[in-house]
Amino acid sequence: IVAWEPKQLASTKAWTVYRRGESLSQWDSLGQVAATDTAVFVDKTVNTKQQAYQYAIVTKDEYGCKSPMSAAHTTMHLKTGVSLQNYPQLWWSAYQGVEVESYIIYRENVQTKQFEEIGSTFLTSFTDLKPNGTNNYRVAIKFANWIKPSKLKSDSGPFSQSFSNMSEASL
What we know:
Blueprint: E1 2-3, E2 12-20, E3 27-34, E4 40-41, E5 54-61, E6 73-74, E7 78-82, E8 88-92, E9 100-108, E10 115-121, E11 125-127, E12 136-147, E13 159-163, E14 167-168
Antiparallel strand pairs: 1-4, 2-3, 2-5, 5-6, 7-8, 8-11, 9-10, 9-12, 12-13, 12-14
């Protein structure tokens, strides 16, 4: 999900969401969101288990003029492994584009299959010293400031966290 706080100008008609392509200079247009809609776009073409992605937004006004591209935001990508002491170890790429307050680590509960918070850090790695037999982890970004899209629906914010891909530690 790409969500942003729109700077609502009377002349704004739409926002175009871009994702960086296979080179630094390549940006692929993914689609548009009308200014009358919630400022949220779902990119269904990515594989979050494989890599992080970069997104940017361009505003289009009623005359067809486009703004300069916004600063890029880079998603996080979670990787797992095992420490020398045989503990699950997590590493992730830092989220870039907004201020991050901390990262919250979640582990799946074996009985309930729900993810439960097991720790937090402002760094980008974590070792689970009390594993519970599951290998399923997620990391959430706790943003310093909430992201509030223009309209509120149950699935459109405001957002205070963003979750990583799910990753399994191979024990």
